[in-house]
Amino acid sequence: MAISVSLSIPFSSFFSSLNSSSSFFSLPKTIYSNTQCSEFSLKTERKTSWYRPLAVNCCSGDDLISNNANGRQHPLSSLAPFGVTMNENGKSHSSYKWRRVLLKVSGEALAGDQAQNIDPKITMAIAREVASVTRLGIEVAIVVGGGNIFRGSTWAGSSGLDRSSADYIGMLATVMNAIYLQATMESIGIPTRVQTAFRMSEVAEPYIRRRAIRHLEKGRVVIFAAGTGNPFFTTDTAAALRCAEINAEVVLKATNVDGVFDDDPRRNPNALLLDTLTYQDVTSKELSVMDMTAITLCQENNIPVVVFNINKEGNISKAIRGDGVGTFIGTPSNPETART
């Protein structure tokens, strides 16, 4: 394919015009940036003392330049990104199990070794894990807890503090965690929005379902803070609720343990890790995975839950791929089947 352009312009300003948006001259960037171009030459003839007619010849294969007229596209656009495979028809499909997920991060997980309320190494590890999957086109929303700063259910009744007031203080703690996590993510280039269940417009957006979904569609990470905005409801319930509202496909519950065990692994070293569970198993055995309101909401909306250890590198992306990390909680008929 050859392109020939003849112009009468000042020679000194020719190259600056290549990158300009001027209406009289425009070339696709591919022409002069692609290293596979076989010829690029300028031909000049003397006409006046400082104006010269210029001829630009650019020769390359038809496969190097996008042609909007006939609908052809650059062949690189058909290459699959990392984590995406091609089927026999040449169409791409992701090797990841879910495309929109909700990550629930407990306050205790953010505290790390408990030496301080928030461990910067933990938040940076979360940010890098989330970055690795958002670059693949996976949409990630996050619900954060506040137990590393203040847990309402623990403080209720102390010094005359009623449960509602204690829960509101706990909601404010989740906002602190959310803002810290947002700052960490944006420090490594991840566009992030914080939405709170009640208005705090100076520091975050109010929760608006459609706006949250739009942020996700644009590739931004959305952090939901302040729980549901109501006392007596945990952040686990907020995670299940937000997951259902934004049509996420799974709740990934990040904790400090490897999953759900048949006994407390801290007291019993012989406790066995359970690979799969049904919702009925969790409720009937009273397993401390999520509170009953949260697990019931997941069951009613057929939302699977994956419980895993956030402290192990790569576990977030493994959970999204469905690699069998941690414990999978799903429907009785087929716990391995994702929500449709």
TrEMBL record:
One Gene Ontology MF term: UMP kinase activity
Pfam families with a match to the protein in the record: AA_kinase (PF00696)
Pathway(s) this gene product operates in, as recorded in its UniProt entry: Pyrimidine metabolism; CTP biosynthesis via de novo pathway; UDP from UMP (UMPK route): step 1/1
GO cellular component: cytoplasm
Superkingdom, natural source: Eukaryota
Protein name: UMP kinase
InterPro entries: AceGlu_kinase-like_sf, Asp/Glu/Uridylate_kinase, Uridylate_kinase_bac
One BP annotation, GO: UDP biosynthetic process
